[in-house]
Structures are given as C-alpha cells and as structure tokens.
Amino acid sequence: MVAPPFLNLSTCRRSSPCSTPLRTRCVGAGLDKMSCRVGFYRQELNKTVWEVPERYQRLTPVGSGAFGSVCSAFDSKTRQKVAVKKLSRPFQSLVHARRTYRELRLLKHMKHENVIGLLDVFTPSTSVQNFNEVYLVTNLMGADLNNIVKCQKLTDDHIQFLIYQLLRGLKYIHSAGIIHRDLKPSNLAVNEDCELRILDFGLARQADDEMTGYVATRWYRAPEIMLNWMHYNQTVDIWSVGCIMAELLKGKALFPGNDYIDQLKRIMEVVGTPNSEFLMKISSEHARRYIESLPHMPQQDLKEVFHGANTLAIDLLEKMLILDSDKRIAATEALAHPYFVQYHDPDDEPEAEPYDESTENKDRTIDEWKEITYEEVISFKPPDVKIDDLEIEQ
C-alpha cells in the first residue's frame, strides 16, 4: 500500500504531566521497604508504583484511565520504544477479574498490522499466591485520531487511507467473531506515515453474546445500542466507522449528543425517522413508543451535509449510516467499495482464527480468575517481530 503524504504529528502527541520519577533497584531498602523480583526494578510515577523488568527503561507517563495507566518505555532488548500498560486493580472484583482475563486473551489473539498486538506481558509476582499486578506491552503509537483531527485538516487521500486501514483491521476482528463496541477516534492510533492501529479491547465481546447498551462513547454509538436491543451484530462497529469518517470529512463530530435522547434526535435529523419495517424490529416497547412520538424528519442529502466531499466517500457513508443494522454494509463489503480502489486487495486483507470465549463464560471466583490469568501470563510467547515492524515512533 502506498500511503498519502505523511502527517505532521509534532503538535498532536499525547502528553501527560508527570512527577519526578523515583527509582530503585529493589535491593532490600527500596520503595515500601520491599524487595522485588530479580531482574526487575521499581519506580514511582504520578503516585503509582511500577515494577517492571530492567529491559524496559525510561518509563514516562503518557496517559491514564479507569482501567489502567500507560507509560512509554525504551525496550533495551529490541532497541525500540514501546507502551507499557499497568492494569488498575485487575482483581478487585469479579467484574475486574473477568475483564482482565478477557483483555489479555484478546490481545494475545490479535495478530494484524492494523490492530494493536501484544509484544509482552509480565507480572512482578513469582507465584499465583501473590499475583495482583498485570502489565501489558504493546507498540507505542505517538498520537490518536482524536488529537490529529483537532490539530490539522486531513486531505481526502488521508481519509481514504485511514478508513481503509480501519476497515481492514475491523474485517480481521469481525472474522474472529468479535465486536469491538468502542470504536472512536481516541481508540485509533496513527503514526507519521499515516499507519493506523485499532486500540483498546477491554470492552470487546463476541458477536453472539447478549449485550446491553451504554458502553461506547455516545457520539459514535450505534442507535440499536441506545435502543437497548438485547441482540445486535458486528455492524454496530460499522456505524462507528461511519461516524468517525464523517468527523474526518467535516472536522467535527457529526452527532455530538448531550444525552442519549439528544443523540437519537441528532441522528434522525440526518438519516430521517425510521419506517414501520424498522420499528417492528425494535424489541423494546418503550424505545419503539418514544421513536413513534417523534415528529417526522426526512433524510438529509449527505451531499449537502458534506458539501464538496468526494462523492464516493458520501456514497460509502450512506451505506454505513443506516438505522437498520440488517441493511448496513459489512467490513468486507466496504473494503471493496470504489472509494478504496487504489488500496483494496482481497489477498492482503487477512482474516483471523476464530476466537474461543468458552473459558470466559464460566462462573468463577476471583481466585480462579487469577489462576487462569496467571497461566496466560506465564505461557505467553513473544511474537517473532522484525525490528521494522516496531518502528512506530522514533
């Protein structure tokens, strides 16, 4: 694939204020007067203690969230920069424990150029009895799409290449039977060569699972999630792709709802109120009555909404932003759309091995989740990665 001109990410980097790091080699008089695992060192960053193998040097905070903190680091073994994520309270509750196990297994399963993959996983614990910390090592990506949209205008060539890669990664994810559920610009990492990777599988679930709404960021959430259908399919991610693509074209979010009612109203102002065929598919009587109470809104002409945009881009958007998920285009079909004619290659759009979630669906105690997670950690085999494959940020 020939990429468009490179992106200037000098002003789009993720950044995070950090305190002066306190580091010790844990020789008995270190932090908390505790010794640590041989070959590891301990360092305090933003009031969080990190205990990592000595191969990972120059830890620098780059972000944090509800489920963990992330540092950049220099991997002295591969001579590359990486991202190290420390999971927050991974076994605090049954929900946390199941989520930790699922995120680790999903990352281990993903092996695709446009999907974040696992380079390493480790714990400072030497046995399952004292196992309470999990660290995940992935490629370091310098900026996310949210940062990029805010700091520069993208050309149509850039948008083609970015959305093609997003759909290419999504085809791989969906072929494993997985729904991402939380696609949004901040979960898409991009480097200066315009290469994209899909991030954050903490919320991903298999396609046949029963799921309730309010997971994805509201602005990118498919309407069927907000209508709280118990069953929905992989095209919830396609709706999110459509919202992301629309934002790249407009330079701002297409459906910036203040709450979920406002969100539905904004969606229907663009795509129109649904017909009776669609209403019959809504299992929630409350949701159906609410939609029926709305005034009729005609579908807008997207050529007017996206004035001056590539007509092929608009045609693709019209196939993504459809209320009826049964009629929404799939990732494989979208890749073959004429908008991607210069990139589409069926022989270079791989599929994944099916993802086995059987171990995730069993009821277990926290200790049992810890035990099988520990087994996943110690059984991890690093991928055979060429140095060039890791050169995501210099």
Automatic annotation (TrEMBL):
Annotated binding of ATP, by residue: K86
Q: Which domain of life is it from?
A: Eukaryota
Question: GO molecular function, one example?
Answer: ATP binding
Compositionally biased region (Acidic residues): 346-358
**What InterPro entries does the annotation carry?**
Kinase-like_dom_sf, MAP_kinase_CS, MAPK, MAPK_HOG-like, Prot_kinase_dom, Protein_kinase_ATP_BS
Q: Which PANTHER family match?
A: MITOGEN-ACTIVATED PROTEIN KINASE (PTHR24055)
Please report the name of this protein according to its UniProt entry.
mitogen-activated protein kinase
Q: Which organism is it from?
A: Hymenochirus boettgeri (Congo dwarf clawed frog)
